[in-house]
Each structure stands twice: as C-alpha cells, then as structure tokens.
Input
Amino acid sequence: MSRKGGRWFVSFLVDDHAAPPGQHAMPGTAVGIDRGVKNAVVTSDGDFHGRPFITAGERVRYRRLQQRLARSKRGSANRHKTITAMGRIMSRVSDRRGDFCAQIAARIVARNAMVVLEDLRIKNMSAGASGTVAEPGHNVRQKAGLNRAILDKGWHRLELAFTNAARYTGTRVVKVNPAYTSQRCSACGFVTEGNRESQAVFRCKAAGCGHRDHADVNAAKNIKAAGHAVSACGDLGTSRSVKQEPVSRATGRTPS
Ligand SMILES: [Zn+2]
Output
C-alpha cells in the first residue's frame, strides 16, 4: 500500500505466466524516439504524439501555490495544506502521463522489433539544446521550469513503459548517447549547431545537401541510426549502453 497526492493505492503483483516471444512479429523493424518540446514523443517515422499533461487552470493554480509556499512558515499548518494541494495537482498530471506513456509504448512496440531511446542521464541539458520558446512576461522562467520538469519526468515514465510493453512483443529497447542528435544531418551526417534553424526546423548547411526535416524527426532518425550501430555490437553493446556511467556534462555540447 502506498499514499501519493493524498490518495491511497493498493498494488498487487500478479504472475501472468507470459513469456516474451523469441522473435518480434515484424523482425527487422526499428524506430528512433526523440523527446520533443511541443510533442512529448516524436518518432523517426515522422509521427508526433503528445497531449497536455497539465491544464491551463492547473498551471495557474500550481504557480500560485508555489508563491504561497514561499511565503509560508516552516512547519505551519498552512504550509502543509499548500504542499498537499500541490501534490494533488501533480498526481493528476502523473495519472495523465501514465496513461499516455502506456498507450504510446504499446502502440509503438507492436510495430517495431527495436525501439531506440536517448539515454538522458548523459544528456547535456543546456538551454540552447532544449529549444525553449521564449515568451514575454515575468513568469516565463518559472513556467519553463515547470514544463521542463514535466517533460523530464515523462521521459523516465516512457522508458519504463517501453520496457514493460516490450516484454509482450519481444521488442528490444536500446538506449544511446544523445550527443549531437539534434545537430547532425540524418541524410549526410554533417554536424553543426547551425543545422537546427529553430525549435522545429532542421536544414543541413553542408554544401550539396540541404536536407530539410522537422528538427525532432531528424533527431529521431539519428537516434534510430545510433541504435542500429549499438545493436550491431550484439547484446554486449546493449547492456553496456544501458549500464554506462554518466560522462562529463560537456559531452553533449557543440565543439566551438
Ligand atoms: Zn546533410
């Protein structure tokens, strides 16, 4: 039994005797998944999946509660009430995210023998790489922070959902180093920061290429290619990529 966001949960562990199929129903199929900014999930097939996890009203309320929390006295009854109210909003957000992740993961593993994800423990979370869209107003940073927190948590849930769903289809889930995936041209391999013209637009600057794509789809294609490279090393490569220690924060940056 557990308690979360003011609600009680009872969990049962059930052995469904399901064994992962030895081979996926569609062998040789693969997809790369990019974590989008506007859409939670963008695939190398060019599919965009997303839904708002927090409503506009909840966002406003949450921000007000954050301010109230900052003003409240440590250990006071008011502070406790504020924290409980914040937890209630976040548990609703969490439920929506859970539904979304389970549905998307089930749909994608059914069609793919290999799913390639970014290993975000080694992602450099610089402002430039994340492509935050600036808006006027003094709450921009706070709002961006909340969005980021929601997207980041969502990514971990999605990874778990893929791992769970993959057991039923025999899909292999591979994690790869995300460095340069947003700056590399998926057509010719040329890497430069300027390739990503905006949050949405990718256009290759290499002479004679000029490949154009949605920036997140281009990144997902690079992720898929990186997954093929890892899987060519066999299971050793996969387990190493999963257990790899985080490398220095500088790794994901563009060389100047
Ligand atoms: Zn190119």
